C-alpha cells in the first residue's frame, strides 16, 4: 500500500512539474511513461486512476489547469492555466472591462451575488488600485441607485426556468404591476435592463431598467421563448432598439459619409455592431452603412461627429437632423 502511495506521489509531483512548465499533458502519452505503468501487469494504469491523480491536484490547486476534451476517438488533455496565459489575457481593453465591472459592483451590492469573502474583495481592490496607478480609466455616468442583489437572483432563477413574473414598475410616475416573460438581463450603456416579452396591444417586447423595479412576484405560469425575440435581443445595439415581428425585415439602413480627417476612428472601431465600411473614396472619405431598428438609434452618433459625418440616406433622417440644427442655431443666435 505504502509503495502504491509513493508511486502516486511521484506521479502527482511529475504532473505538477509539467503544469508549472506550462505543458499540455496528453492522457495517451502519459500511459507511455513508466510512472503510469502498473508493474504487476506491465500495462498502463486506468483512465480512472489518472483522473484521480488530477483530482487530487485540483483539490489543492483548483485554478491550476483545465481539461480539454479530445476529438472523436481520441483522449483529451490537461492544460496549465499558468501565469503566461493570464498575462496574455490581460490586454488593456480587458483590463478596462475588469476595472469598470469592479467599479460597478462596488457602487452597488452586486458583490453579494459573487462567492467572495472580505479578504477576496480586499485583494481584488488592491489589484485594481495598482492598475489605476498605471492606467486612467474614464467611466461613463453610472446610475447611482443601489441595485438589489435579491432582485437579480430572482430574475436569474426565473430566466433560467422560463417562468413568468409580475414586476412592480413606475410608469408615468405611477407604480404599475406588469406581467412579463423574462428573457435576458441586458447590460447596455452602463445600466442593467430586463429584456422581456409582454402581452400588450401595441408591442410585444420591452426593456425595464432593473434599478427601477420595486418588487417581483413569482407566478406558476411558464413560457416558451419566441425565437425571433430571442435573436433580436442578441442584435440589440442601443437602448433605443425597437422590436417588430420579423424584425430583420423591418430594419432601416442608414448610409453616411465620413470625412477623411476622421476616417481613422471608423476604421479602428465599430461604433455600432452593424457598422460596415462599404466604400473608400479617392479623397479618403468613407461611405459607412449602419443597420438599425429606427432612426433614433443612430441620431446621437451622427450629431456627435458633425461636421465630419453627413447623412446620405434615408432623406428623412438627414432632414430631421438639419431641421434640429437649424432650430438650435436660430435659438442660439
Q: What would you say this structure looks like, in words?
A:
The protein has 333 residues and is of the alpha+beta class. The mean pLDDT is 83. 39% of the residues lie in helices and 25% in strands. It folds into 4 domains: 2-85, Arc Repressor Mutant, subunit A; 90-132; 149-247, SH3 type barrels, CATH 2.30.30.520; 251-332, Alpha-Beta Plaits (2-Layer Sandwich). It has a 5-stranded antiparallel β-sheet.
In CATH, what is the class of the largest domain?
Answer: Mainly Beta
Major pleated sheet = 5 strands, antiparallel
Whole-angstrom Rg: 28 Å
Question: Structurally, how many domains make up the residues?
Answer: 4
Quick one: overall form? extended
Query: What is the CATH architecture annotation of the largest domain?
Result: Roll
Overall pLDDT score: 83
DSSP, total strands: 14
Named CATH topology of the largest domain: SH3 type barrels
Q: Which structural class is indicated by helix and strand composition?
A: alpha+beta
Order of helices and strands: HEHEEHEEHHHHEEEEEHEHEEHEH
Ranges where pLDDT stays below 50 over 5 or more residues in a row are none
